[in-house]
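Example record

One chain of 828 residues, shown exactly as stored in the release files.
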Amino acid sequence: MAGKLKIHGRLLYNMWLHLLYSSLLLITTAIIVSTAEDTSTFQSIADGETVVSTGATFELGFFSAGASKSRYVAIWYKKIPVATIVWIANRDTPLTGSSGILKVSSPGILVLVDQKNTTVWSSNTSSSAQNPVGNLVVIDGNDHNDTQKYLWQSFDYPGDTLLPGMKLGRNKITGFNWHLTPWKSPQDPSPGNYTYQLGPDGYHELIVREGSVIKYRTGPWNGIQFSGMHNLNSDHTNKYGFVLDDDEEVYYGYKLLNSSILSRLALTQDGLLQSYTWSDETQGWVLYLTAQVDICDSYGLCGPNGACSVENSPVCGCLEGFTPNFRQDRDLVDWSYGCVRKTPPSCSGDIFKKYSGMKLPNTEQSWYNSSMNLKECEMMCMNSFCSCTAFANLDVRDGGRGCLLWFSDLIDIRYSTGSGQDVYIRMAASELDQGSNTDTNAKTSKSNVKKVRIIVTSTVLSTVLLILGLTLLLYVWKKQHQKDGKPRPSQKEDMELPLFDLAAVVRATNSFSNDSKLGEGGFGSVFKGTLKDGQEIAVKRLSKHSTQGLNELKNEVTHIAKLQHRNLVKLLGCCIQEDEMMLIYEFMPNKSLDFFIFDQRKSMMLDWPKRFDIINGIARGLLYLHQDSRLRVIHRDLKASNVLLDSGFNPKISDFGLARSFAENETNAKTKKVVGTYGYMSPEYAIDGFYSTKSDVYSFGVLVLEIVSGKRNRGFTHPGHSLNLLGHAWMLCTEGRSIEVLDTSVGDSSDPHEVLRSIHVGLLCVQRNPADRPSMPAAVVMLSGEGSLPQPQKPGFYSERDLNELEVDPSSKAFSANEVTFTLMEAR
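Predicted structure tokens for this chain:
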């Protein structure tokens, strides 16, 4: 049998390369490319001793990745200037010598051998009838008809790239699995730790895993799109499809609506799914779509029976009829434990609550039938006793058809406007909201409804009467005590915080001795103390000469006493006695962040992993303040000296004396009393008095660049220009030299990818226009590597001169010493 090697082009299907060998003598014609004389990274096979057709979209040849000397056989785009690999033959077994030979041997097997004639890689001969573009195939050389089955094709073995016409799925007969794996690194194309493939169990959906851990899933296909990919509606370049053949294959794929467009889907080294199109105008690849777009795309973020919505704060909540599964050792912002039912289903007479616009739950524990209608699906679920927890249509077209049932906790649900669908979730009839029974299939009788109404009405009336009676008694009691000359509740009681005795604090701090002093700020001095039981504390003592006073102290207590998060400093209590006003905090043995990063010797104690953990910890603390706390809090004075470090160098945001809280429907405010610290304040706040969560984002961006560089934004100097740290970092970014921002004391501990990403996120956060800055949820996602990064615009306060102009206003009563907080009485 003869064999033929063929490459299909995107635009010209008549472009093909074949290697013929005699079926009688079994003589093979080899493609030989010597790499000993290579002077460029990429070399087309046509440049060597080969016979190859030209004019196609793709080329086959040998290449090296980055600075690596290892050689691979690959396919890449031919007519674009950006070298883009779409398929590699020998990902796991690179050539290490000076030459390689790719040949076709009997019976139609591709073989790659090194200079010692040792087999490095070979193909198998699994058949396929597919005729896609950009594909390398081996066909029977005795028949030149393109409609025949291929002996082997590259599209059956995708790497990190999915091209139009390729499959993601599996062959049910052979068990063959089409899936994507990313490169391990830019210099190493061997498979990384992520996979993108069809889920092995239950109904079919595509899943991104890191090792065996699910990181993202698309949701099941509903006949139009995946229920969890809410950005496919905006794609006017590609047409997506899902083929479900119960007897043979199930797979996902897409095709171009315009054949002149170059398009590819890639799985990045961070596990992100990103679709790119080629731009002739910019001569580069343009990010068209990203599958993971926000924090709710993180798999299982809200735990079992929890639902995620980016429009809510916090983003996680429980479904109706469920309550948070709190535990004593659980962080209140950690929803991984999910929700549990308030009332278990009775197994008969239950109802199904309809939720619309939802990403359907994980389908690993599901059952499906394509012929049932929705009513039959409901009856099937109802008759499955208590084991069936929810049901939905398989296909939403033409009014809906098919049945999908769940038999366990509901995992990874989100509100998905534009792509979600209806799902019916089982609950006990007693949990039914009678006002919403138009969206349910209730099985309760009219008599039960009347009984419930009577009980609820009588309970409400009794409660109201009880509250009125207690209120009247409390009023009379207060009046009587005022007549008797007894004092009203004091400011101490208003604090709702443990009060420390002055004598105990004086004893703990050794009478506020200099040996106990940790530092000082705008509020006053901070002292270390040890209580009688051995607990170490930090005492923040109001200075008699401080411009801050009781209002700032009460403001700090009001905000931080109600906030609990691992990245916020814990307030233990306060002391207001005689002429003293003090706040008592947990003690942080490693002092503040500025104590380390701005000291050439101490900064060596913060290697890159510690710095990156600190950046992420600060980001999570701000995310909690802005979104997940009971109050939407704007810190307004985030800086290195207000980030404390515990014994493990975990960061904790402190000093809430200048903080302000927003109501749920508020997003920004304006003040004539501008407070903050030069170098960390956003332009719109320092100049016009406008502040919002984006003001804190700006401060966070400054802090990120200071942590990476080990340099202060204020007072930064460079022999080549007069820019501050922000301007310096932005200039290097535009020149492709961002890595030069990194503090040299970090040494070899740095991860270049994390460093460059941190710098990029920092520059995005300090852009002049607040609307251009990311929110803290978005910044957290960006830092973790989830999402594409746009190019940052010029920072606000680009040079030192910008900041100096703020200090020369004679009408302002401002002061700034090093990094001490200042107050501007009138905004300019």
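Notes: The two ends are 85 Å apart (CA to CA).
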